[in-house]
Design a protein that fits this description.
Layout: E1 5-10, E2 13-18, E3 24-25, E4 42-44, E5 58-60, H1 64-67, H2 76-111, H3 116-119, H4 121-149, H5 153-162, H6 164-188, H7 195-222, E6 233-235, H8 237-247, H9 253-256, E7 257-259, H10 262-268, E8 275-277, H11 279-299, E9 305-314, E10 317-324, H12 357-367, E11 371-377, E12 384-392
Amino acid sequence: MNPLLGVGKTGSKLLPRDEANGGQNVSDINDDTSVNSPDRTTLTSDAGTLRPSTFPPTLTVPPASLANSNNVSIDFSAFCDRVGAEHHDAMKVVPSIQLLLIDLQEELETAGFESNAFESLDGAITSYARRSEAFCRWVDLIAGRIKDERTDLQEEFNDVFTSAIYLAMAGSFLRFRDNLRKLNDELASVVKPSERIVNSIATCSRLDDNAEIILRFMNMIRKFDLGYKGDPTLVDINDSIRDALGYFPTDKVVHYLAIDTVEQFDSNRQNLPKVLIDPDILFKVWLNLATNACEECEKFRLTGVSFKISARQDGNYIEVRAEDKGPGIDPGVAANPNMILERGFSTKTGKNNRGLGMDIIKQIVEEAGGTIRVESKFGIPDSGATIIIRLPVAPEN
């Protein structure tokens, strides 16, 4: 379901309108997708975790660094680009979630298992998709208003993260995740689980993997005022790559790319010193690299293409190589392979391809003090493209 967004006004504020609710301002809507938070500053999931996470399931509205600042120097157009890019990745998993819910429903019905928690899952994820689309469109509207009227940036940024539509989007997601974990607990409590129940538990785990990607989108947006540097901490590159390998199967990349399993990666990993970088933002790098390789293979109708990410130490740097055996980069499109790192450049066609993916990776790497370059051998079998990223070893090592 795609939302239709109009524009309403309360005083001088832009408010999103939702045609599915009769054109009401979203702030006037009082349904189960709203978030009833006393101070509307923090949204927290109290549910237990299905698997360890590298980031907290907490959403802060607005970001603390913004709320405590009287002088915000942010490029709003860059923020809109980031919202769009993150949203693109987060929305890709929604169809996967909906297909998994169909499988889960069949498993539960065959097992004769009834759950109120399951009944609300489909509605919650549909609501999230609708609200998140509306949120992104509203951000674009605000960007236009700032450009035309040169209004106060801090006021507008606070509006973004205290708006009813942002809270509704976050609430829909948290409702989905909480009910998923309640269902998982119910299934895990079955004394003598049948094969169908065991399969259902496995499906819940896969659904949670998808939900983690959406949560990363929410957390990345929460950190917008920190730029591409984010909130750096000591990170083991191998653990970060390993984490990403666990999520790739949730995406269509597995249809086009033959990616190492976690076990295969572990068998070749080396002990490496840590780097200083935001773990959520670093995950974004691995996700984008795999997605870009996948889309190139899709364009050339190639499947089962080898894709490997490996890391090694080279002096005071950790060098990561993301290698695919796909078609490579057509020199007729990009005379120099490194052109794909330029903002606005894309080898893909279509109105939704804005050429931001690799530019964002480049900015992330450079903010962390690293470098990135591209090698390609177009048309040579089993060659493809290689992205080489070098990140400095953290001084704490």
